Amino acid sequence: MLARDWYYTQRRRLGLDSAVASIYDRHDDSDERARAALTMLGVQRGWRVADIGCGNGVLACEAALMGAEVDAIDISPAMLALANIYARDRKAVIRTQPAGLLSFAYEPNSYDLIVSEFTLHHLPDFWKAVALARIFAALKPGANFYLRDIVFVSMPDGIERDIDQWAEFTIKNHDFQREGVVAHMRDEYSTFGWVIERMLTDIGFTLESVDYHAPLHGTYLLRKPKPGQQS
Ligand SMILES: C[S@@+](CC[C@H](N)C(=O)[O-])C[C@H]1O[C@@H](n2cnc3c(N)ncnc32)[C@H](O)[C@@H]1O
C-alpha cells in the first residue's frame, strides 16, 4: 500500500528538520507537564504506549520512566537523534521509529495509549483522517488516544482575529518569532476544531473530553470503544 504513487509524501518538509530540532533542543518544564498528562491518562507499568510526532522525546521518556514500553515515532531523523540523546541522559529505554502518522508500523489492537501532540497539523485534512483511522486501528479496544494540536476554534469568518490573537500569544509566551507564525499559516494544515471532532467521531472514537484553550490550542481525550459499546 505505501508504494502507491498517490500516497501523501510526509517527508516533503524534512529539509527543515534540523532547524526545527534546534528550536526544540532546549530546557523547560516540558518533562513535568508530560508527567502530569501521563498520570492523568493512567499510564501503568507494562503498558504499550506510542508517541507519534514525538519530537525531542520528552513525553516518550517520561512514559518509559513510568514503566511503559514506548515507541517514539517521528518522521524526522534529526528529532529522533535528539530523542535518543535525551533518553540516554534520562536513562530511559525507548524504541525510536523513523516513520510518520501515515506509515508507522503497528499491530492492530496493540497499544494501551497513543499520544500525538502538535503533529497532526502537518497533514492536509484528507490525510489527517487517514492517519486518525490508523491510530484507531492500532489501539486496543477501550484504550485512549490523547491528541493535542493547533486548531481554529472560530468559524471560517473569524480566522483573522484568531490568527492575530495566536500570533500575539505565541510570540509573547513561547519565544516564537512572527516568521514561525506566518510559516505555520502558509505551509502547514491547521484546521477547524469542528472538522477534527467530526473526523474523530466518524472514525469511531468516543470523545471523552475536548478542551479549546489559549488561542488555537485543542486538547482531545478519546477512547476506542470496546465491542458492543457505543462510540
Ligand atoms: C511541533 S513538533 C511537536 C513535537 C512534540 N510532540 C512536542 O509536542 O513537543 C512536530 C513534530 O512532528 C514531526 N512530524 C511532522 N510531520 C510528521 C508526520 N507526518 N508524522 C509524524 N511526525 C511528523 C516533526 O518532525 C516534529 O518532531
From TrEMBL:
Q: In its keyword annotation, does this UniProt entry include Transferase? A: yes
Q: Which UniProt keywords apply?
A: Methyltransferase, Transferase
Q: Name one GO molecular function term.
A: methyltransferase activity
- Tree of life domain: Bacteria
What Gene Ontology terms for biological process does this UniProt record contain? methylation
Methyltransferase domain span: 49-142
Q: What is this protein called?
A: Class I SAM-dependent methyltransferase
